[in-house]
Amino acid sequence: MARMGQNPVPPFEVRASPIQGQGVFATRRIRRGARLLEYTGERISHAEANQRYDDDAVDHPHTFLFTVSAQVVIDAAVDGNAARFINHSCAPNCQAVDDEGRIFIEAARAIRPGEELAYDYQLERAGRWRKDFAQRYACRCGAPNCRGVLLLKPKRPRRPARALAA
Ligand SMILES: [Zn+2]
User: Fold this and answer.
1) What would the pLDDT profile of 22-48 be if each residue is shown by its tens digit?
2) 161 or 130, which is more confident?
3) How far is the CA of 1 from the centre of ligand 1 (A)?
4) Measured in angstroms, how far is the CA atom of residue 19 from the centroid of ligand 1?
5) Ligand 1 mean position to 4 CA, how many Å?
6) Cβ-based neighbour number of residue 98 at 10 Å
7) What CA–CA distance (Å, rounded) separates 164 from 166?
8) Distance (Å, rounded) from C-alpha 146 to C-alpha 154?
């Protein structure tokens, strides 16, 4: 299993992001494949997550939920760590890896100091695609291949959801 190196200081910091709100930025060179941190939070059911958060009730939906499986969602608003501040990018330098039900953020390529860390949220919403989703889940990652929206458009057959808009 990939481990962090001997240096106990994490190679990243949380600060204001040009993408949106707060972001997480590399403070040192990070090698490809490095496991950076676990996506922590309270593990709850989808029913509980839906009860806590109503995406349609807010202008800018929260993205502090990570769907682990059909049963489990991690709510990073409760006992979450810096992982909850990692923004989405359509051309990410990190990826979220499921290791026996625990989610870890790993470097998908070598990352330079100062680069903002990001992974593809692959957000999904149940039901039909609605026109207002494009605005509500607008992506401002700035990547040349930006798909313009945080959500994956529904496909058939559907893939299992990895992350879910709160
Ligand atoms: Zn984008």
Assistant:
1) 999 999 999 999 999 999 999 999 999
2) 130
3) 30
4) 9
5) 28
6) 13
7) 6
8) 17
The domain that holds 156 is classified in CATH as 2.170.270.10
Which residues span the domain enclosing 44? 12-164
Distance (Å) from CA 135 to ligand 1 centroid: 13
Mean pLDDT of the chain: 87
The verdict on residue 5 lying in a domain is: no
Give the three-class secondary structure for 151: strand
Question: What pLDDT was estimated at residue 132?
Answer: 87
Task: Confirm whether 6 is domain-assigned.
Answer: no
Q: What is the DSSP letter of 84?
A: G
Q: What three-state secondary structure class fits 60? A: coil
Total count of domains within the chain = 1
Q: Among residues 91, 109, 143, 90, which one has the least CA distance to residue 26? A: 109
Does residue 97 lie in a domain region?
A: yes
Sign of CA dihedral 115, 82, 96, 22: negative
Q: How far are the Cα atoms of 54, 65, 93, 138 from residue 20, in angstroms, in the given order?
A: 21, 17, 17, 11
Q: Determine the pLDDT at residue 92.
A: 97
Tokens of 108: 């998908």
